[in-house]
Amino acid sequence: MVARLIDEDPEQAYAYSRIALRLASRVAAVREAAGFAAYATQKYSEALAEFRAAKRMTGSVELWPVMADCERGLGRPERALAMAGEPEVQKLDKAGQVEMRLVAAGARRDQGQLEAAIVTLQSPELASNAVQPWTARLRYAYADALLAAGREDEAREWFGKALEADKDGATDASDRLAELDGVEFVDAAIDLSDDDEVEDLTAGDRDEDDDEDEDEDPAEVAAAERATDVTEYYDEDDEEFEPLEQSAAGADTDLRGDQA
Known about the structure:
mainly alpha, Tetratricopeptide TPR_4, TPR-like_helical_dom_sf
């Protein structure tokens, strides 16, 4: 349930994790799940304690980057940077090392060291053209750091590269690019709350049309239609126009006679 809810409802996921802890606090997977649930709800002190417990139980270092990020969340970026230099980092797989680099760059930015953050993210993984699960996030972080340092043209380039690698929509690189280009998105959808007003206005127009139709004399309408037909055939150079008009008038007389 924690895994199912952590993205859409982290508070509910956290509630489930507390129940799991009461039932099986000596299971490493439970401690890890509780750590991620606390992390998702920004309870960084709880998250760090659970991650440390899971690490002691398993001996694995895979949680090292998220533990360092908890230190950042607690306002201790210097501890996160210290963890980035520990031997545990060398035991991480490639994905873990990239994650650790992202955390270290974030810690540099927390300390106001923008250029150092940019240098921290410059790596073979960033320069590679191969797309890996971490590529979009790494390029995005680099672009964001460049933008924070005032290097807008370079930032635009790397946001574009992040967008190319972001097949799952893990970042908002497209929105950041649009923002840099001065593009504003406007929601053109009609507000459903205005439907009644629109319907009332339409009904009013129909009522006016109906009133106009009721006031018109059917004989006058028929005469106007015939006059229009005569005008359509009118030719200034046509000497037959006068008899044609008279013929139409005669037809009108016959029509009224028939109606009578």
